[in-house]
Amino acid sequence: MKCEALSIKKYLDKSPNIFFIFGSEVILKNNSKDVLKNHLKAKGFTERKFINKDGFKDIEQAIIENAGGSLFGSKTIIEINHDQGKIPDQIIKIFEIPNISNMENIAIIINSHNEKLNSSTKWVKQMDLSALIVECKKLKSFEEKIWLKNELSFTSDQDRSGLVQSIYEMNSGNLVAQQNEIKILKLVYKDGMNMAQGSVIDSSEFLPFELEDMIISRDTKNALRIVSSIKSSEGHYAPLLVWIVGKIVNSSTNALQNRSPQASLQKSGVWGDKISGYMSFIKKHSLKDLIGLQRNVFELDLANKGLIKKNFWDELDTLIIKLTAS
What we know:
3 domains, Zinc Finger, Delta Prime, domain 3, 6 strands
């Protein structure tokens, strides 16, 4: 069977526990994986096994070993990440395994970087008989608004239509940027919040977002001043600060690993007027340093949640100094 990402939930109960995700829209691919994992969790799949390119040779063995279930009776999700090149034979051969679609103790999720499939090829026809093929293509305008409405289900009915229109107008065609706005809203949303022209964030919440500008311009003094101001009067914004710093580090790390850093930044949801600032910022940091800073962001999040014994504000100051040091 084949379906589009927006209608995936309608097909879950009709499908074997084998799924192939492909298409050009990364956000929809990630969302589809989340939907599948939640669906499988509800069916008792508690174990997970990850296979990337280096492990493709072991795919068939992993399937056979887990098909009978574990010693503790648990079911296993085998997640296969195909991130480059054409579909390898090891993945194609999955659909040649006898009775593959009726194995109750395993589920297979194949996440492919391929943007298109040739439905006339033998292996795709074979896959169509034993798996749910989920296409994650770019959305049309009305589909984007449907997606936005579903993602904004945490907002009140009164606010939702205005938020959908505002986010769509600012980021039409860019689901990454739209999802970034949604993540921010989840941190700061209050029922009946004021809708400022051109932004979904109330004017009293501008200060945290000034921090992004200060960090990418490597203005240590003003970045620390903003954090100090937020700490003294708006401490509840700590999760938002973690998100902002994490966005900077992760977007920059991805850009440094991409042949086209500017295109990577755009796909990461960085606004067009900030891309030049990010480009200047990443020139001052090595990939090794940024990967190390990703660990610091992770620990900052744990500190905010009280899961490690570190002072959140001290850790944030230290991280900002590392990011803005000349």
